[in-house]
Specification:
alpha/beta, Aspartate Aminotransferase, domain 2, Aspartate Aminotransferase, domain 1, 2 domains, 12 strands, binds pyridoxal-5'-phosphate
């Protein structure tokens, strides 16, 4: 008798079903929000696996199963925000340990590293991780993590995950990749050799700009155990309601990301062809210095675009005119968000810090949403006329 081969579920099926099986006690198709702080115990030392909500919550368990499956990891642990996840990651280290970080990352990351965690004896240095040799040179004897964001924020520079993983592993260093900008649909860091992936679930995973959260997806049991201990001890966990929002959001990840990607390409092409736009930073353009690497490493180019208007005045004038695009921080939602890195997301770096990595006062960043591309382009077109 022919036996049916076990079929590996596809990405869309995983997004919809992994961790999202119907509730065994009621049959509810959507994972319930377990709004409870504690669980009744049948007797001393006898419980159903849940004792107190800081330690564990069934809605959270389901989200952790879902994200581990979607990112292709072994386990996931979720936190109150992306920054809470990065902070939890660093509490896996001890005083004297060193972290090598990509030199233009989400602005909150160097703020946490330099202005808080450096006071606890951790060492942080920064390198242009788009240059693999620079990574090799920057590793130290006490380096525990290489922390890489690719594409970077807001300059969209690309780091070669596979090459960096090889260098790190030769030296016993774990590679951590912030995959927030791409989502597991467009980029698969763990398959390229990364040891852990970080997400701000606030962005594409949730996808609807209505919840805050962070996740770490692990490849080893010891990482997940240590992070569960950190969740319990520090307590910066994701609430059941926010977990539920992400569980709902990821169900459509496989349809949202190709649309973001397609709209991103169209908007980038439009900007690249506009006479008032001085420069466009988007890995999907053939003019991007790492276009080939991006095409090889990612399944698409995403919807994050930065461009140069030439001056603070120009940026101000155009940002005052947008109507379909909303002026605001954050990214990855269904609506197009437009922002000004120098005064918003990267203000904390200071003028010198921004100049060092190439963020100018005239730079504008767009997170292209899922509206009709023609409407986004028409809006940008009329706003650019103000310059
Ligand atoms: C937003 C963001 C973070 C921080 O996440 P929060 O949920 O805002 O705390 C980290 N990394 C990247 C790339 C981000 O875009």
């Amino acid at each position: 008798m022919a036996r049916q081969k076990a079929r590996t579920p596809g990405f869309a099926t995983t997004c919809i079903h992994a961790g999202q099986e119907p509730d065994p006690s009621t049959g509810a198709v959507a994972v319930p929000i377990f709004a409870t702080s504690t669980y009744v115990q049948e007797g001393l030392g006898k419980n159903k696996g849940y004792e107190y909500a800081r330690v564990s919550n069934p809605t959270r368990t389901r989200l952790e199963q879902s994200l581990a499956a979607i990112e292709g990891g072994r386990h996931a642990r979720v936190f109150a925000s992306g920054m809470a996840a990065v902070s939890a990651l660093c509490t896996m280290l001890k005083a004297g340990d060193h972290v090598l970080c990509s030199h233009n990352v989400y602005g909150g990351v160097p703020r946490l590293f330099n202005q808080i965690l450096a006071h606890y004896g951790l060492e942080f240095t920064y390198a242009d991780t788009s240059d693999t040799l620079a990574v090799e040179r920057a590793l130290r004897k006490n380096t525990r993590f290489a922390y890489v964001e690719t594409p970077t924020n807001p300059l969209m520079s690309i780091s070669d995950i596979e090459a960096i993983a090889r260098i790190c592993h030769k030296r016993g260093v774990d590679l951590v990749v912030d995959n927030t900008f791409m989502s597991p649909y467009l980029q698969r860091p763990l398959e390229l050799g990364a040891d852990m992936v970080v997400h701000s679930t606030t962005k594409f995973l949730n996808g609807h700009s209505d919840g805050l959260g962070g996740a770490i997806i692990c490849t080893r049991d010891d990482q997940a155990e240590q992070l569960a201990f950190i969740q319990k001890s520090v307590g910066a966990i994701m609430s059941p309601f926010e977990c539920w929002l992400v569980l709902r959001g990821v169900k459509t990840l496989e349809v949202r990301m190709p649309r973001h990607d397609q709209n991103g390409r169209e908007v980038a092409e439009f900007l690249a062809g506009h006479r008032k736009v001085k420069k466009v930073f988007y890995p999907g353009l053939a003019s991007h210095p790492q276009h080939q690497l991006a095409a090889r490493q990612m399944r698409g180019f995403g919807s994050m675009i930065s461009f140069e208007t030439g001056s603070l005045g120009n940026a101000k004038r155009m940002l005052a005119r947008v109507r379909v695009c909303s002026l605001g921080e954050s990214l990855g939602g269904v609506e197009t968000l437009i922002s000004h890195p120098a005064t918003m997301t990267h203000a904390a770096l200071g003028e010198k810090g921004r100049k060092a990595i190439g963020i100018t006062d005239g730079m504008v960043r767009i997170s292209v949403g899922m509206e009709d591309a023609g409407d986004i382009i028409a809006d940008l077109d009329q706003a650019l006329d103000a310059m």
